[in-house]
Design goal:
Layout lengths: L10 H12 L5 H14 L4 H8 L3 H13 L2 H5 L13 H11 L12 H11 L7 H10 L17 H15 L8 E14 L18 E14 L5 E6 L4 H15 L6 E5 L7 H7 L2 H8 L2 E5 L12 H9 L6 H17 L10 H7 L12
Parallel strand pairs: 1-4, 4-5
Antiparallel strand pairs: 1-2, 2-3
Length: 371
């Protein structure tokens, strides 16, 4: 290629290009143009630059030309690329977005690209519209109307805030063996057995298991987790009645924390999670004895994220497979529990009351100022 343009950078331009390459997030094309200019300034040939930077010779030529005839900014910026005009105008794109965010047609659970393309043909003067055009415009607006995310939409009021801050204050306390903080939750799990023996994995072949399975009933998992030390306990039961909850509380007092003065238990608002459950399960003197050592702290409704109990971790690390027998379930969970306790695994809770007030300011109820 006939070299027509010579790149001579000033010191400030060299510093600017080196700073561009040394940090920050920038488009790959912009970084390559910076490399081309620095290499050309050092006297490297166009062929060598093209090879080292990984671009074509025409890219090197155009970048040098833009610098010599224009400026450093012109050489680094993206030149307009030839191509067909956008199929949808600005107003039509806004109409597409509004349609995608509206309810789908009767009889359909969600919008698809084909449905949206058909709707736009009816709403505009376009005779046809490809699904790819629709997909690109939706992608530019970060929209995927065929997807949904399930979420607990909580009503934030004074009670919600009071319970949230109460739990957050417990987590922020210094560890106190006399007054431990224990998170408690429960979750059902299915006993799923194999109908046919799975085929083990081997080089070049994944493990294979049959699509048919045998359902052997359900079990319930009661999970305890100490908020301030690496300890968790899982109790497997057949059901989760009030008596099962009461027996878990007795285990806390008599087995797991026999020397504690007061056990602060963080739990949700399930109907069986109440002091009355202990009086239903045990004689009054026994229930009274246990409740003198327990203090319940309830999370707000629809705020399970405030309970740091590790049910999600347990499912991901241990239960993400078929386990068909209750005794095997107990054995596998016990092994997971021992390993995780021995490893000293803990949850590092970062969300505090002060951060809640700073980040959730708009969620806090407005207080009336005294006149």
């Amino acid at each position: 290629m006939n070299v027509r343009y010579r790149v001579d950078l000033s010191q400030s331009e060299r510093d600017a290009l080196k700073a561009l390459l040394s940090g920050g997030k920038h488009a790959a094309r912009k970084l390559k143009r910076a490399q081309i200019l620095l290499a050309a300034d050092a006297g490297v040939s166009d062929e060598a630059i093209a090879t080292s930077v990984g671009v074509g010779g025409s890219t090197v030529y155009r970048t040098k030309r833009c610098f010599v005839e224009g400026s450093l900014e012109a050489a680094l910026s993206e030149e307009p690329r030839p191509g067909a005009a956008r199929k949808l105008s600005g107003n039509e794109e806004a109409l597409l977005v509004a349609t995608a965010c509206s309810d789908p047609p009767a009889g359909r659970a969600r919008w698809t690209l084909e449905l949206l393309a058909g709707a736009m043909v009816k709403l505009t003067e376009h005779e046809d519209l490809s699904r790819e055009t629709v997909r690109r415009r939706l992608a530019e607006n970060d929209l995927k109307p065929w997807r949904k995310d399930m979420w607990c939409i909580a009503q934030v009021d004074g009670t919600y805030v009071a319970r949230m801050e109460d739990v957050l204050d417990l987590y922020a306390e210094a560890p106190d063996p006399e007054r431990p903080v224990v998170c408690f939750d429960e979750s059902p799990t299915q006993l799923i057995g194999e109908v046919r023996q799975p085929i083990p994995a081997e080089p070049g072949q994944l493990e294979r298991y049959d699509c048919e399975y045998r359902r052997n009933g359900t079990a319930n998992l009661f999970v305890f987790l100490d908020a301030h030390r690496p300890w968790r306990k899982v109790k497997v039961t057949e059901q989760r009645a009030a008596r099962d909850f009461a027996e878990c509380m007795r285990d806390l007092v008599d087995i797991h924390y026999p020397h504690a003065e007061q056990i602060r238990v963080v739990l949700d608002n399930l109907s069986t999670h109440s002091p009355g459950a202990l009086y239903e399960a045990f004689p009054a003197p026994e229930a009274h004895r246990l409740l003198r050592s327990i203090e319940f702290h309830y999370t707000p409704k629809h705020a399970s994220w405030l309970n740091m109990v590790e049910i999600g971790v347990l499912r991901g690390q241990c239960l993400d497979r078929r386990i068909g027998e209750r005794q095997r379930l107990i054995s596998e969970i016990a092994a997971w529990e021992r390993q995780r306790n021995a490893a000293g695994a803990r949850i590092k809770w970062m969300f505090t009351t002060d951060r809640a007030r700073a980040k959730l300011t708009r969620a806090y109820p407005e207080t009336r100022k005294e006149s």
